[in-house]
Amino acid sequence: MTTDRLRLATVWLGGCSGCHMSFLDLDEWLFELAARADVVFSPLADAKGFPEDVDLTLVEGAIANSDNLELAHTLRARSRVVVSFGDCAVTGNVTSLRNRLGEPATMLERVYVEQPDLDGQLPVEVVPTLLPQVRPLHEAITVDVYLPGCPPSADRIRRALVHLLDALEAGTEIPDLEWRGPDDLRFG
Amino acid sequence: MSPREPRPTVPVTIDGQEVMAVEDETILSLARRVGVDIPTLCYLEGLSVYGGCRLCVVEVNGDARLKLACATPVWADMEVRTDTWDLREHRRRIIELLFAEGSHICATCVSNGACELQDLAATNRVDHIHYDLGFAPNLPLEPVDASHPRYVLDRDRCVRCSRCVRVCAEVEGAAVWEIAERGGNSRLVAEMDVPWGEASSCTSCGKCVLVCPTGALSFKGSAIGEMRHDPEVVAFLARAREEEEWLDRSAGSGSASEVRS
Ligand code: SF4
Ligand code: SF4
Ligand code: FES
Fold first, then answer.
1. Any bridge partners for residue B11, and if so which?
2. In this complex, do B122 and A185 lie within 8 Å of one another by their Cβ atoms?
């Protein structure tokens, strides 16, 4: 083991943050994680920009808007290992349900104008532009490890993190699929 | 139960295991008997063999042309491999293609947690889909057919396994379902493509719903993750019919066939 602690990031793209909630369900194992790695960027940490030199980045959520796409490219350039974290990142999942409605404008109309209890205006300022289609993370950037589940259970996350942290600390190859059993892989 | 002639056996090697197979049985039936697991999707015990999903591919005598375990009878000295790297890759690609061509957003599906396609993905180590996911605007959107008073058909989750077609024709004798058109355009239709609720040949027995491996057929009112299928019911019915379990045999031998004729 090196003296340098590992640098871990978690990112929240087009998802419901359920994967992050599941991450928090790691409960006391988070102390073990904290003993091995610093969380350098996360919706759960106070950091503004995505830092340089990250060892491991968990990415929740699909690529749904221009900000998602930009952050995906940044995190890829600055991370050694990128994990597609949860079904929205892996397949588009719930976030991609809007794809069948066609152009984003159709969905915006439906949500902001046709819904009776809102004031009938499309959001135009500050919010990032929606991409024509919601796409899985691996269509935007190279992904090293896939961790499906909606959300992946805390146990599933822990098993994956243990393997990945071990490999990163030892400086060995990222373990391939074969270490995982059916419980580690189920969609949904 | 009528006594059966013992059927001749032939020697077969399956994944290095030397076993005696019953002549004319399929590779799949042999494999299941000797505890070798071959993934299947369209195959269902008690129904005719369809050979449509191709998940059960195996290698025979090292031949590059793969065989369907569910549709290929054994022969003497056959050497079967069921679990090579190539076969595992083939199966993964087939499963991924099934995911890619429909709407398989498990988190929003009635069958979430009890789906054969979802299970197949997990047990065959499919952790993402290499293909362009078909939940895209260029694919025809199939509206959910909820016209039947008790059941619902969501064609976007149908894998065209034809289990429902076969159980309806072969076990219920109603022949409501058919798979119309070909390839990516193929779709399950009731009668001459009428809404299910208007199909007068449907007896509402629900067997199609019970055998469906995915969330395509479900009981009306099932919420996400609530649907539970029961495909084994077909094997149960087939066995019961073959062994004439429900016929009154108290009148002595011969009465069963009299009732049947
Ligand atoms: S049918 Fe099965 S694989 Fe498809 S969405 Fe439903 S649970 Fe997932
Ligand atoms: S509805 Fe279900 S049983 Fe029928 S063909 Fe589709 S997946 Fe198979
Ligand atoms: S199980 Fe053999 S082709 Fe489907």
1. B20
2. yes
Surface-to-core class of residue A167, CB atoms within 10 Å of its CB (0-12 exposed, 13-18 middle, 19+ buried): middle
CATH architecture, domain B111-130+139-258: 2-Layer Sandwich (3.30)
B155 near B216, Cβ under 8 Å? yes
CATH fold for domain A6-185: Rossmann fold (3.40.50)
The fold for domain B9-83 equals Ubiquitin-like (UB roll) (3.10.20)
* pLDDT (mean) for A144-153: 97
The two three-digit tokens of residue A113, written as one number: 């104008």
How many A-B residue pairs are in contact by the CB < 8 A criterion? 79
| Residue B58 CA to ligand 3 centre (angstroms) | 11
Distance CA B103, CA A93 (A): 9
Ligand 3 centre distance from Cα of residue B89 (Å): 16
* Model ipTM value: 0.91
pLDDT value of residue B142: 83
CA B171 to chain centre: 14
Tokens of B37: 């697991």
